[in-house]
Structures are given as structure tokens and as C-alpha cells.
Amino acid sequence: MENDKNRLVDMFQVDEKRAQPGDIIQFQRNNVLLEGTVLPSHGENSIIVDLSSMNHKDLEEINHGYSNTVVAHHKYKVVEKKSK
Fold it and tell me: What residues have CB less than 8 Å from 40, skipping those under 6 apart?
């Protein structure tokens, strides 16, 4: 299973789409692929992401004790747009 996870991280590609609040994004941190929901913010160069729906083991792997994090626009890809 660890090899499958590493293979996914190696294949991760960012895109040029800007995320909006409510969108689901993926990003990579410490060789762990993370997914979260974009929160409302006014950052020009980054977004705030809610990671509370993530597996707690994945959060422990990146040694992150918080449910939110900041991600630069050029480091994520949008995997699901918020339905309108």
C-alpha cells in the first residue's frame, strides 16, 4: 500500500485553475498527498484549506496538529468544483 501512495505522489501534477471557497483540492506536503476543502479567504497568493475530513493518520504523517493550512496557488489542483 505504501508503494501505491508513493506512486500517487510521484504522479501529482498541479493545474492553473484557481480554487474558490467550497472546492475540493489536492496538494502535496512532505511526500503525502492531501485533500481538503477551500475556505473563504482574501489571500492573493494562497488559499486556506480545511483538512478536517482527512484521515488522521495522514495528518500525523506530516506532523500537522491543526485542521486548517495555507496552500500557495501554484501548489494545488482542483479535483472537485463546488456545485452551484
Answer: 21, 48
